[in-house]
Design goal:
Length: 234
């Protein structure tokens, strides 16, 4: 298990990204890597906007957990349509009575450019492919026991997930993840120093235990075959 000092510039351990990033908050909470709009919402820069998005999202997820996705989508769309039509009629009547010509009430939104450029799509695809390749390589390393200690850690994590899956269904986990998205980043930002201190203690303790296990298990000190052959050639 690596320490923060061993992590790369993106906050993820170069050697063991999956295992390392779990206890490295810098790999999870980096507002500068987010789109400004997303960063503003989940870090509550504008409390009113974040509250509206959080409330609407939470209500939608709770509704989906109680009703079918199609029903929720249809009712929300119908509610939105009724609201926009009513507002459009209201503004038209107001303009007629006051004899003003303010134009279409949604003109600002109608003129928004929602098209995706080819460069943007290629950039998103490139980032997605890079993450998928890295994730696949890490899973291969863990499942094929390149490092037995890391594979054991991964097994413990999977074992914990079996209990989480028994306690919560998929939709409940989605709701918890959504709530965490709007709470944990702000909590970490406000208490970064104390949280990092406690996580460093946990990380150091785990490193100490890992080192003892590596000494006790000679197989844990074995190097990958490719690396051993490379050193032999040298």
């Amino acid at each position: 298990m690596c320490t923060i000092g061993e992590a790369g510039q993106n906050g993820v351990c170069k050697q063991r990204p999956l295992i390392c990033s779990i206890l490295d908050p810098n790999a999870w909470f980096k507002p500068e890597r987010l789109h400004p709009l997303v960063e503003s919402l989940i870090y509550w820069r504008d409390v009113k906007k974040s509250g509206i998005v959080f409330g609407a999202g939470l209500i939608t997820l709770v509704a989906i957990s109680c009703f079918s996705v199609i029903s929720v989508f249809a009712y929300l769309s119908l509610l939105t349509l009724v609201g926009t039509v009513a507002f459009r009629i209201y503004k038209s009547v107001t303009q007629a009575v006051q004899k003003t010509n303010d134009g279409h009430p949604f003109k600002e939104y109608l003129e928004l450019d929602l098209t995706l450029s080819q460069e943007k799509v290629q950039h998103i695809a490139g980032v997605a492919v890079a993450h998928i390749n890295g994730f696949t390589a890490e899973l291969r390393r863990l499942f094929l026991v390149e490092d037995i200690i890391d594979s054991i850690k991964f097994g413990v994590i999977l074992w914990v997930f079996t209990y989480i899956g028994a306690w919560f269904n998929g939709m409940t986990l989605v709701i918890l993840a959504f709530v965490s998205l709007f709470t944990l980043p702000k909590v970490y930002e406000n208490n970064k120093q104390s949280i990092d201190t406690y996580l460093d203690l946990v990380r150091n303790k785990l490193t100490e235990i890992t080192d003892k296990i590596r000494v006790a298990l000679p197989i844990g000190n074995k190097k990958p075959v490719a690396a051993a052959e490379s050193e032999k050639d040298k």
